[in-house]
Design a protein that fits this description.
Blueprint (H helix, E strand, L loop, with lengths): L6 H19 L5 H10 L4 H12 L2 H5 L2 H6 L6 E2 L14 H8 L2 H8 L8 H22 L8 H7 L9 H11 L11 H4 L2 H23 L4 H23 L6 E6 L5 E6 L1 H8 L7 E5 L8 E5 L12 E4 L2 H13 L4 E5 L5 E2 L4 E2 L6 H5 L7 H6 L7 E11 L2 E8 L11 E5 H7 E7 L5 H7 L4 E3 L11
Parallel strand pairs: 4-6, 5-14, 9-12
Antiparallel strand pairs: 1-10, 2-3, 4-13, 5-6, 7-10, 7-13, 8-9, 10-11, 11-12
Length: 465
């Protein structure tokens, strides 16, 4: 029997077909246009020489602005005393390295030590476990949403990442404490986390699919959570196999600068209370979020690592105000945790951060500059790395440059330290963390207001590396 389509459907196809074909062809790269590109580019001697140089040379060397480099010096009018550069290796743990780096000097003074480092591996272990639990709990909470919902897709983007914000750091060490590095040292997997992360993400995403299916089937909440807890046992086992078993109690035996041998038994929580005599809850996150109005209180949905913790909240201020508070802290001998975009205008050999340090515009004869807000909106720029400010150079009462302690080891930068020009701060620094006592009344009053919640897919939720 011959089947025919209804006339209305045939008419619809006939009407739509020319339009769809026309749309598909509109804006395509035609043969004539490709030919015009080929004939329009003239390889004159200058262009040919440039092509030869670029194809055979690292373009950063060709674009390096020698005038800026020649003006560079590492003299600072205010410089805090620090001991030892840390190295996060091939991991995205800058946020917790920076967190410990701003606390290390006080710990060394307290225990009269020539050198000291916390175990970042210990903190990462518990952070990974908590992130896995947070992810699975949010999957349960959102299980009835469409899979293509933007919030679901944001949660599925790297569920158990290395990175985190300042509030992640505070939540983890307040709950699990901390230990000296020698108590839970680095492993090959804590220093190079890529393979471990792929396995963890695979495990929790497989569990997410099952959890959504169980909710769709009408399983009781207790059954769903029982399955989640069985998955977390596998997560814990994987973490132990990759990172080692975190201690419940340990004996710390060390020699101070006076050659005195000291031995004491701690739990990670008691060591935290003894070593870090700072109320980390007093620190406030200040952000230059170029997409949102300034002088307002915000939080970001699902921006945390503990399910029971509060989402990251911040006061949105201009870069100039961020600098003002950072300078005040340095004057009071306090290092400053900050976050910046380190993709641009940084020279890893010289340890220099400066606007237009790499002049690609002149090299390629192209207009490439974009304002900070546009770079953020169009996903070109985001706060991808956390470090510590430990110095500043003042001239005529204004900062000219800042001294940065990084966590990329001694071989990158100038012995691990970096000079950040003040103009680079304006363009690429997004966040500083400041104790409440340094904040004026107008900002403290903003903290008391109900924050406006930004969605889980906001660019500021992206975690560091």
């Amino acid at each position: 029997m011959r089947h025919t389509l209804p006339i209305s459907i045939c008419l619809l196809i006939c009407l739509c077909l020319p339009l769809s074909l026309s749309f598909a062809q509109e804006g395509g790269l035609t043969a004539d246009y490709i030919k015009s590109l080929q004939t329009g580019l003239v390889l004159d001697p200058g262009t040919r020489a440039l092509m030869n140089a670029i194809t055979g040379t690292d373009i950063k060397q060709l674009a390096l602005n020698r005038e800026i480099v020649n003006r560079y010096n590492d003299v600072f009018s205010l410089k805090l005393k620090t001991e030892g550069i840390t190295d996060q290796k091939s991991s995205g743990r800058c946020w917790l390295f920076a967190g410990y780096n701003i606390l290390r000097p006080a710990v060394m003074r307290k225990f009269n030590l020539a050198a000291f480092e916390f175990s970042q591996n210990h903190t990462m272990f518990w952070d990974k476990l908590e992130k896995a639990n947070f992810f699975l709990e949010t999957i349960i909470a959102t299980a009835k949403k469409d899979f293509d919902d933007r919030e679901i897709q944001a949660l599925l983007t790297d569920p158990v990442p290395d990175g985190g914000w300042w509030n992640y750091y505070v939540s983890i060490i307040e709950k699990y404490g901390c230990v000296p590095k020698e108590i839970m040292p680095e492993t090959i997997n804590s220093e190079k986390t890529d393979r471990m992360n792929k396995i963890l993400n695979n495990l929790v995403c497989k569990a997410a699919a099952e959890l959504r299916a169980q909710v769709a089937q009408g399983r009781r909440p207790a059954e769903v959570r029982q399955y989640k807890e069985s998955v977390l046992k596998d997560v814990y086992r994987l973490l132990v196999l990759h990172l080692g078993n975190p201690p419940r109690e340990f004996t710390w035996r060390y020699k101070d600068k006076d050659e005195k041998v000291i031995e004491k038994t701690y739990t990670p929580q008691s060591f935290y209370k003894d070593a870090i005599a700072v109320n980390l809850q007093e620190y406030v996150t200040l952000v230059d979020h170029p997409e949102q109005p300034y002088n307002k209180h915000y939080d970001i949905h699902y921006c945390r690592n503990l399910i029971e913790a509060r989402d990251m909240n911040f006061i949105n201020l201009s870069a100039e105000r961020l600098k003002e508070f950072a300078f005040t802290m340095l004057q009071d001998s306090l290092p400053v945790w900050f976050a910046a975009d380190v993709q641009y205008n940084m020279d890893r050999d010289k340890g220099l951060m400066a606007n237009d340090l790499f002049d690609y515009q002149t090299l390629f004869n192209l207009k490439l500059q974009m304002p900070k807000k546009e770079r953020y909106l169009y996903k070109i720029s985001n706060p991808g790395h956390a470090m510590a400010l430990i110095g500043v150079d003042i001239k005529e009462r204004k900062p000219q440059k800042w001294l940065v302690e990084n966590s990329w080891g001694k071989d990158i930068g100038k012995g691990g330290y970096w000079t950040m020009n003040d103009d680079w701060f304006n363009e690429y620094v997004f966040t500083v963390i400041v104790p409440q006592k340094y904040l004026p009344a107008d900002i403290l009053n903003l903290l008391k207001t109900k924050p406006e919640t930004l969605p889980a897919w906001d660019g500021m939720r992206s975690v560091f590396n």
